[in-house]
Each structure stands twice: as structure tokens, then as C-alpha cells.
Amino acid sequence: MSGDWRYEQLHDALRLGLRAENILYESKTEHQHLVLFENAKFGKVLTLDTVLQTTTRDEFIYHEMLTHVPILAHGAVRRVLIIGGGDGGMLEEVLKHRTVETVTMVEIDAAVIEFSKKYLPEICKDAFEDPRTDLVIGDGYAFVGQDGPKYDLIIVDSTDPIGPGEVLFTRSFYERCHAALNEGGILVTQNGVPFMQASELQQTVNFLRPIFADVSCYLASVPTYVGGPMAFGWATDNKALRSVSADKLDVRFRSANLDTQYYTPAVHKAAFALPGYVSKLLA
Ligand code: SAM
Questions:
Q1: Domain positions in the chain
Q2: Cα(280)–Cα(30) distance, rounded to whole angstroms?
């Protein structure tokens, strides 16, 4: 097979290859090695330190599920904090909710944002220019440790627990997030693919359990994150939010007037149904 192949070596026993038809950008930022290339199947592909971050073909699944699930389950989210999320996809998706008043996004690597505005406008659109956006360049761990305003929802859209993302998977980070949430607020986290990264999810859940009254995860399959469905950590002190009825979600979904490609209230409910091997990790 011809072409320039790029490989993700995230797991010990698996290497994922994607053909790079065209390298659009490659640079070493202050924090990470950033590459953007085109692939015939996935469109534009962003990698940081060789690890796949997002692609223009399947980003909608990841971004819709980490935003609409907690926002519609909560029902009254006004203030949102995103940790990471440099490509702007999460920010763009949150801002679709007109009821959200402010979104603070704390990204450690300014270069990822500048680059995304220029090369990935199909993902971030004009989210960085929205008056409700409050952009902070800095470490998410340090940010949540400051005394500041509280949030109804915190979304951890981080890299894997390697390099700058490692601190975002620690017990003290989750304690800080709990303290930064309003009463009944929700924390959701990207927690990798449990079939491949079981200990990552297990560790997060073990850290979260003593801090929050209700801790679980929900799932969605994102084609570029291989090995089965990806897990999103879920933590809140309001136990009712995980079991909001499909009818209620449907009313909220219609009133939000979202044009989603993956999220539906039925998918939302089903995402919390965990297969045996994932339930056992949480037991
Ligand atoms: N969807 C992605 C994934 O899991 O493959 C994550 C996307 S987003 C590009 C991840 C972002 O987290 C990166 O832009 C990275 O710079 C940022 N990040 C990593 N560690 C961070 C930290 N400690 N504080 C704030 N942002 C961080």
C-alpha cells in the first residue's frame, strides 16, 4: 500500500495506522507534537503526541455525547467549564444551548486553539468568537484549585493520561472539580475505551466514588477510538439525574431545538446501559 502512514501507538498490543494522503500541518508546540493530515475515510485527522484526538468525520459522536447528555439530564445548566478541548468542538456543541449563559474553557496549549481556528473551522466554527465564551490558557488542574465562581457542569475533554493530561485523572483533580460545582452539578470525563484501557476507567471511578453521591459511566462508539465503545465518566451528587425519563429528555431536546447527528433521547437512555465487562469494572 502506498502513501505516508501515520501510526497511533496508544496500547501495548495494538498499533493503529491511518494513511495520510496529505499532511496539512505538523509542528512541535510548547507542550505537544501536533499533526493534522487528511485521510480518505475520516477526513481531517488531528493527533497530539501521535495519539488521535479528533477527526472531521466522527467528531460529532464524541462532542454530542459529552455535552447534550449532561446538559439535558440536568435541565438547567447555565454555567459550563470545559477543561482541555483545544479543537473547539466541545465549546461549539455546548454553545448550541441558548440557555447556557457562559462557557469557560481552560486549555493548556494555546497553539492547539490557534491552529484549530485556522485549520479545523469545520469543528470549532465561530465558537471562540461567541460572547459567552471565556477562554483561559492554562492548566486545568491549577484552574479548578482556585477560588472562583462555580459551575453547573464540568466537561473534561482531555488527552489520555500521558503528558499534560495526566493530572486530569488524579483524585485531587476530581476533588477540586467537586468543590467547583454548584449543588447538583455534573462532572463528565473522557475515559478512554474500557476494552483497551480498563484500568483508566476503573481508577477514575474509584477516585470519584468517595467524592460524589452518584458515580457511573455511559458509552458511545466512536470509530476512530478502536476497541469498542468509549466510556464517559459521570459524577454528581444528584442521584435522580442519571434516570431522568425519556419523555422528559424528549421535551428538553425539542425545546433546545438541536440538530444532532448522533444524540437522541433514546440513545441518551441507552448509553447508561452497561455491558457485563464494563459493569464489572465499576463494581
Ligand atoms: N477528543 C480528544 C481525545 O480524547 O482524543 C481530546 C481532544 S482535546 C484536543 C484535548 C486537549 O486537552 C488538548 O488540546 C490538550 O492540549 C488539552 N490538555 C491536556 N492536558 C491539559 C491540562 N492539564 N489542562 C488543560 N488542557 C489540557
A1: 4-55, 59-282
A2: 40
H/E run at residue 110: helix 110-119
The residue type found at 232 is F
Mean pLDDT (whole number) for 3-20: 91
Q: What does the alpha-carbon distance between residue 33 and residue 39 come to, in Å, rounded to a whole number?
A: 19
Let me know: does 228 contact 193? Beta carbons within 8 Å: yes
Q: Check pLDDT > 60 for residue 231.
A: yes
Report how far Cα 84 is from the mean position of its chain's Cα atoms: 8
Under CATH, which architecture does the 4-55 domain have? Answer: Roll (2.30)
Angle between helices 246-256 and 59-74 (to 10 degrees): 110
Predicted pLDDT at 2: 60
Q: pLDDT tens digits, residue range 48-58?
A: 999 999 999 99
Query: How far does residue 230's CA lie from ligand 1's centre (Å)?
Result: 16
Å from CA of 48 to ligand 1 middle: 9
pLDDT at 66: 98
For the domain spanning 59-282, the CATH number is 3.40.50.150
Task: Tell which one of 63, 108, 117, 168 to mutate to probe ligand 1, the residue whose CB is within 8 A of the most ligand atoms.
Answer: 108
In the chain, DSSP assigns E strands to 4-11, 14-20, 22-28, 33-39, 43-48, 51-55, 79-84, 102-107, 133-137, 151-157, 181-190, 214-220, 230-236
Give the SS3 label for residue 196. coil
